[in-house]
Amino acid sequence: MTPAPRAYNVVLDWIEDTLRSGEISIGDKLPSERVLAEQFSISRASVREAIRILDVMGLVRSATGSGPTAGATVISEPSAALAWALRMHVATRSLPIRDLVQARLLLETQSALEAATAPESPGRTTTLERAAELVAQMDEPDLPADEYHVLDAEFHVKLSSLAGNVVVETIMDSLRQATISYVQETVAQLPDWAEVRDELQAQHRVILAAFRERRGGDAAKALRHHITWFFALSPES
Fold first, then answer.
1. Suppose 46 and one of 8, 26, 41, 183 were both cysteines; which one would form an S-S bond, judging by CB atoms 3.0 to 4.6 Å apart?
2. What value does the mean pLDDT take over residues 181-187?
3. Where does the HTH gntR-type domain lie (predicted)?
4. Measured between alpha carbons, how far is 128 from 211 in angstroms, rounded to an integer?
5. pLDDT at 146
């Protein structure tokens, strides 16, 4: 027997329909709990559950209290739900790290090829400048390993964004967030993190130069070496 749909699903379906139709856009506030409960003849608890799910998904931001800032506002953080789901599956070992790394390889190397032929734009220049800043920040000898990983993640996402594919950029951001735990665990077990970091930095510079010079094949090759080299250090490899 098929279980009955949960009451909050009607709110989720309504949100999807109104976003598609343009009745509600990013920046708009949702109707109050009371209004939605009356509109769909469900309890306010069910409405709150729907809003909570949308909050976790990164689709709305909720503010408590009263006044013009209270309630749920539509925002756009598309990687939030995917990143959370991936992290949970990694934590339960239902998604092998090896497969996540392989997914990164496929996405990043293809993005490097696409970026090589992308039109010139001010955005491309800004992204490459930011990537260079990140490499410089990661050069700091006293930079804590955890902060290094955050900068490294941004470096990879920035370069992937040069392909101009928003879906790829979103997935890349989610994958990097999901794999950060295995990166931290790997680094914690390394007796020579300073040497490893120096090698990673050398690899970052090769990758960045290839992107700057639009050498897509070289960028893809350098990324493949970079990702697989580090993964080989992991106990998951």
1. 8
2. 77
3. 5-77
4. 8
5. 87
Largest CA distance in the chain: 63
β-pair partners for 63: 71
Least confident of 20-24, 78-82, 185-189, 211-215: 78-82
Topology of the domain comprising 79-231: Four Helix Bundle (Hemerythrin (Met), subunit A) (1.20.120)
Residue 54: name the closest of 88, 87, 29 by CA.
Answer: 29
The structure's pTM equals 0.75
Distance (Å) of CA 54 to CA 11, 166, 192:
10, 21, 43
- What b/e string do you get for 161-180 counting C-beta neighbours within 10 Å, with b at 16 or more? bbbebeebbbbbbbbbbbbb
28 pLDDT more than 60? yes
